[in-house]
Amino acid sequence: MKRIALALSALLLVAAGDPATETEHTVTEGETLGGIANRAGVAPGVIAAANGLVEPYAVRVGQVLVIPRQRTHTVKAGETGFAIAMDYGVPFELVAVANGLEPPYAIRVGQKLIIPAYSDREVPVAPVRDTPYFRPPHDGVQLLGFQRRPDGTGHEGIDYAVKPGDMVRAAASGRVVYAQTDSGRFGPLVVLDHGNGWRTRYGHLARVTVKLGDMVKAGERVGIAGQGGNATRPELHFDILKDNVPVDPAGKLSGGSGK
User: How far apart, in whole angstroms, are the C-alpha atoms of residue 93 and residue 86?
Assistant: First the structure.
C-alpha cells in the first residue's frame, strides 16, 4: 500500500507540472500569487501583469495563470528557426525579433536562441480602481472607532494603541501633501494624497519621516508612533477622506483586522 501511495503521489506531482518550467499554472487550495511566483522563479508583478491581476492580487482555486518566462534553445543540426518556433508554440516573428534575426533568418548549429514568453490565451483587462486598496497603518488594538453625529461632530477615524517608536505605515501608495511637526490637535501629522479625491491622515506621531512631495508606496514608513498633539496616551490617529469628507475606515481597510 505504501508503494502504491508513493507512486500515486509521484503521478500527481508530474501532472501538476514543474513549477520551475511550467508556462501555465492551475491554482490549488491555499496558494497565493507570491508563493506561485517564488516557486516559478518569476516576479509576482510580471505574472500579475500577464494575467490582468490588480491589487490585492487575489487568485482563486482552479484559476489558470500564464507564467511568462523566457527560455533558451541551442540549435541542433538540421533545425530551422521556423521549426524551433513551432515546437515551442511561439510565432516565429517573435523569435526573430528577440534574437535580431533578419531575412533569410539563417541560424547556426550551437547558436543559443531566446524563446520569448508567449501565450495566445486572451488576458483580461485589469479594471480601473476608483478606490485605493487601503491597508491598516498599524497592527495595534483599536481604541476608538469612527463615529459621526447628525450635526457633523464625532470621531473622524480610528485611534490605534501604539508603543512609542513603532513604525506607522502608508495605508496605500500616494504623494505626501502635508508633513508638519506641529499641526495643533494631532501634533506631528502626515497627509497622503492617493488620487481621485482620496486622502489619508496619520496623527499624534512622535516624528514625521517623509517630506512634502515624497512618493511613498503602500506599507512604507511615513512616521514614528508616539503621543503628539493633545493625545493623552501613545496612539495613532488614522482617517480616510474622500473629497475632504471623512469616510469610515472600517469599511475600506483590507489586509488586516483594522481592530
Answer: 11
More confident residue, 97 or 235: 235
Half-sphere exposure of 53 (CA within 13 A, CB side): 22
Q: What value does the CA radius of gyration of the chain take, rounded to a whole number of Å?
A: 26
Residue at 143: amino acid letter: L
Which residues are CB-contacts of 131 (< 8 A; sequence separation ≥ 6)? 196, 198, 252
- In a domain, residue 7? The reply is no
Interatomic CA distance for residues 134 and 251, integer angstroms: 10
Number of domains forming the structure of the chain: 3
Residues 146 and 247 reside in one and the same domain = yes
Domain housing 205: 142-251
Looking up residue 34, the CATH number of its domain turns out to be: 3.10.350.10
* Euclidean distance between CA atoms 226 and 2, whole angstroms: 59
| Residue that the C-alpha cell 482620496 belongs to | 198
For the beta carbon of residue 1, count every other beta carbon within 10 angstroms: 5
Q: Is the dihedral of CA 156, 160, 164, 167 positive or negative?
A: negative
| Three-point CA angle 141, 168, 37, nearest 5° | 95
| Highest-pLDDT range among 47-51, 69-73, 143-147 | 143-147
CATH number at 229 reads 2.70.70.10
- Type of residue numbered 21: T
Q: How many residues does this entry show for the chain?
A: 259
Q: What digits encode the pLDDT tens for the residues 81-137? A: 999 999 988 889 888 888 888 888 999 999 999 887 776 666 565 565 678 889 999
Which residues, at least 6 apart from 25, have a Cβ–Cβ distance to it below 8 Å? 17, 19, 36, 40, 64, 65, 67
